[in-house]
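Translate structure to sequence.
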């Protein structure tokens, strides 16, 4: 089968399309014929070797966490899905070594969910990692209706889903975004937009969701005793003024993904896709994501 492989750490041009053995589904697993996969910031970190100290999988690596596709075969004892089912899934590539930039992917059926029925199966690959990250971060924040949420990186993949999820729960959202992204942030549901480049007013939010690595500049916007949840590992917010600070790291979860898939079909979540290319365009997708300014996912197809 075709896969986008990484023979060694390095720049984006290390990514190479190659023939590799097709996996077989083990007990409890499904074998998925890939419709599309997406490139996420973590793929850039793995590819460059920035996470090499804690990554224990042999080369060549196959990167990729997001997956949409069709169930091709099921392993022993798997009754959650049948061949032909359209699914989405997230594979925690960094922890498990199972990457999704491959023509076929075998993974536990419990990690997959029915794909949204109202969008193209290729575009459905925009949902899993960013959607689950936003969902789990808002769960950690214990966001309640009527509260005010401040989202940094508001028009990013995670930030955009977080705005839409929060608004659907009756939360007022203030977006922190670059001035040129203000209109998009409003379209996503933000009630107001503050420039992420300038000073941020004090005490305007109950909760901060930090996705852009700008916590020191924006933590002042959280009221005394509020909450801050960060998904940005290098620079999480520091505790101050009784603010509860936590970090979340996305976990695979087919049940939560099924909820998100349903929210796409209900029109609550919008899948934003910036470009679809084939595996050979992997290096360009890595360069584009690193450059910033993408306002939707970069998808790759086999
Ligand atoms: N903890 C976890 O489990 C987890 C899960 C998913 C993602 N992450 C991390 O969370 C971050 C966001 O992920 P994502 O997929 O949403 O990325 P993304 O789609 O690239 O979105 C990031 C957003 O933040 C903005 N941004 C970045 N640096 C900024 C700065 N200095 N000032 C203002 N805005 C800035 C970006 O704007 P520009 O494009 O204009 O720069 C973009 O809108 C990444 O660092 C990723 O590694 C963590």
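Result:
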């Amino acid at each position: 089968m075709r896969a986008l492989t990484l023979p060694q750490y390095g720049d984006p041009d290390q990514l190479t399309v190659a023939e590799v053995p097709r996996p077989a589904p083990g007990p409890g697993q499904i074998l998925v014929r890939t419709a599309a996969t997406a490139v996420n910031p973590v793929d850039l970190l793995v590819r460059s070797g920035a996470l090499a100290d804690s990554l224990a999988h042999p080369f060549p690596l196959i990167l990729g966490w997001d997956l949409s596709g069709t169930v091709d075969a099921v392993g022993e004892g798997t009754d959650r899905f049948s061949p032909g089912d359209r699914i989405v899934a997230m594979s925690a590539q960094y922890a498990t070594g199972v990457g999704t930039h491959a023509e076929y992917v075998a993974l536990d059926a419990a990690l997959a969910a029915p794909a949204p029925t109202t969008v193209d199966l290729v575009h459905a690959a925009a949902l899993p990692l960013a959607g689950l990250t936003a969902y789990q971060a808002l769960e950690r924040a214990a966001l309640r209706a009527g509260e005010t949420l401040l989202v940094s990186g508001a028009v990013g993949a995670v930030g955009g889903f977080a705005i839409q999820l929060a608004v659907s729960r009756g939360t007022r959202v203030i977006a922190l975004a670059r001035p040129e992204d203000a209109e998009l942030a409003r379209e996503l549901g933000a009630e107001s937009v503050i420039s992420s480049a300038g000073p941020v007013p004090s005490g305007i939010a109950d909760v901060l969701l930090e996705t852009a690595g700008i916590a020191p500049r924006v933590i002042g916007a959280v009221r005394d005793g509020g909450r801050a949840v960060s998904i940005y590992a290098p620079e999480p917010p520091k505790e101050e003024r009784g603010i509860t600070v936590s970090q979340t790291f996305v976990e695979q979860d087919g049940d939560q993904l099924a909820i998100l898939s349903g929210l796409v079909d209900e029109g609550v979540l919008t899948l934003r896709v910036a470009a679809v290319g084939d595996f050979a365009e992997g290096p360009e997708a890595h360069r584009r994501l690193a450059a910033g300014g993408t306002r939707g996912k970069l998808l790759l197809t086999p």
